[in-house]
Amino acid sequence: MREVLFRVRTLISLRGVRWWWVTLATIAAVFTWVPLFSLPGYELASAHTSLLGVLGLGLATHAARKLPRGLSSVLAIALLLASTTLPALLLAVARTRFGSPCDPFFNVQFVPVLVLPTALLAAAIGSRVAQRTKRWWPALLLNVGAFGLGAVATLWPILFGPQAFVFNHFVGFAPGPLYDEDVRVTASLLWFRLATVLLAFALSSRRAVALLCATGFVVLELHGVALGFRMNDEALAAALGGRVETDEFVLHYPRSYGQEEVARIVGDVRFRYAQNVKFFGVAPEGKVRVWWYRSPAEKQRLVGAATTQFAKPWRREVHVNDFGFPHPVIKHELVHAMAAPWGSPPFGVAASFGGWFPQTGVIEGLAVAADNPFDELTLHEWAAAMKKKNLLPDVATTMTASGFYAAPPSRAYATAGSFLRYLADTHGREKLRELYRDGDFERAYGVPLEKLSADYVAFLDTVPLENEAVNQAFARFRRGSVFERPCAREVGRLSAEVNEHLASDPQRARDLVSRCRELQPQEPAHVLEEALVLRKLGQVDAAATLLDAELQRLDGEPSPWAQAALVRADLAIEQGNIERARILWRDAIRKEVSPGVDRTARIRLQGAELDAVNGFFKAGDDGLKLLALRDAGDAIAVRYLLGRKLQQLRAWKDALPLLTALLDEELPPSLELETRRLAIEAAFATGNCALVRDLASEPRFDDWVARCAFAFP
Hints:
Elements lengths: L1 H11 L2 H17 L10 H13 L1 H9 L6 H13 L1 H15 L10 H23 L3 H24 L6 E3 L3 E3 L12 H18 L2 H16 L1 H4 L5 H8 E5 L3 E6 L4 H22 L7 E6 L2 H7 L7 E3 L4 E5 L8 H9 L12 E2 L4 E2 L1 H12 L7 H10 L6 H4 L2 H6 L2 H19 L1 H7 L5 H5 L3 H12 L6 H11 L10 H14 L4 H14 L4 H13 L3 H14 L4 H17 L3 H13 L4 H12 L4 H6 L5 H9 L5 H13 L3 H11 L6 H17 L3 H7 L6 H10 L2
Parallel strand pairs: 4-5, 5-7
Antiparallel strand pairs: 1-2, 3-4, 6-7, 8-9
Helix pairs in contact: 1-5, 2-3, 2-4, 2-6, 3-7, 4-5, 4-7, 5-7, 7-8, 7-9, 9-10, 13-15, 15-16, 16-20, 17-20, 17-24, 20-21, 25-26, 26-27, 27-28, 27-29, 28-29, 29-30, 30-31, 31-36, 33-34, 34-35, 34-36, 35-36, 36-37
């Protein structure tokens, strides 16, 4: 070790080496002033690892020319490279410690895990290049070639395989798309970084040790699928186990699913495929491959992107988690795969510069526009409501790759989808398919994007909106992106741990959620979560006091106030204060926040003195809840909850007469709408399409009419 430190000292004394070192350290320090890289965690570590994997090769080659050959010199260069991280790391720690509430050492483990192996590999390659070259340009070519080989090894399984995660010996690791907040050092990452270290020693050690390290490296790479840093089609199909093929697609699903569940999934995917064909006006050639995962954890382990659904259009495949029936995003993801023939090669998406610069706003906007979801509001209503709340992103900017990812995901997707749906309705689908080639609006429409977006924004002013819709939009879109929320990675991890500890260690869960509140004091969700944890601990009065203070703070924000009021009303019931609960439910109704809040408040208000109704909203055995509801009388609240529970348990034939009979009563609009939806779903499940048509009294239910006609022709 003394010899290594001596050689580091020798290198530092050299002017050229110091110039390289200062350059790398300065660039790394500048990263810390960019919000995305300001915390000493995953993003900063990834940025510096990429810096070492590219420019670090130059410093390593230059330094190696000044030292004798040998492992000690390689280690000295690696230490010098790694030390360029220190100024940025110290600056980020200091700024985090004194300028934000975030934990400066949260996720700091990514720094050594990502930086040190890359520094060692860059030192080993740089030393090899220095031995074989005398001039700068052959050295540059060899370094670029080495980096290129690493890029090919990384990109090959991504481009020609199903995985979304990225493992690269030069630039480290990425878990998949940007939207997963909880990023951790996993066993698969540690195995991969061990492979990087073995490769570095294989390049820099004497023959026997080099052979041993090279063998270890090859063994790890060959077992990459088993170790979790590689994936291929055969292994993924074997891991899921189930497979079914239709004329339109090949579905891979978990082998534990029963025949009824598989048939439901196949029917759902076939229906959504047919809807997309109708939207495009033509069926694409070939079959789509659908990978269906049981849970986010399974998806993260197998391919990455735990909570993000994704498609690979150039492979005509989609990857989705199981969200139940009907699946809320399968239609969206199918659009990506089915639209590939109209996109630019090689990736089959809207992309400029010969197909190499994807236009994300157009890519995602087309999928949302074709999906055209109608849940509580239409696409245009969501966008118009955002505009009224000053939450609508700049439309022209959102249609660019950088602008799309800079906006909060929920706002970006809704805005891009509404805009392209507007263009499809006003200019036709053919021009929309033409736009998908390269994202050039002026070429496709003969009008600049700025003019099209201005016309669209003016159109939004004509969309009629109820006050309730504006409040719904605020509740849905108020959260900023992961890059805007303070300490987003830390809060994402803590929130996940709260759920893990809630049942087994509620006191630990409370400590975690208290930390979330400290990091994001303006986020009402953390207060509600802490109140629920206190309730779990039996500290009902403490939870009530906490929520009373929160209700005062949220007095001018209807949506979060109403959510807090519902939880506080539950606590009032437990305290025996039924009158306080009634006041809160009435106030929540008056806020006109959303049909869901209105419906829940009305049901609770009517059943305030019924144990069966109050028990329905607590955790407990479904069978006991059913028994309690059956014996609770014929109040509307009881009949509605009984029908809803039977429908949730897939007792369709029992639920249907209860729900249809309830529709003959005078119901508040929010309750009538949900009862009708539940009845339509139950009627579909029993194959009664005539009843589905009779019940589908609003455009929002047209999807069920079409689904039933498709399933039961």
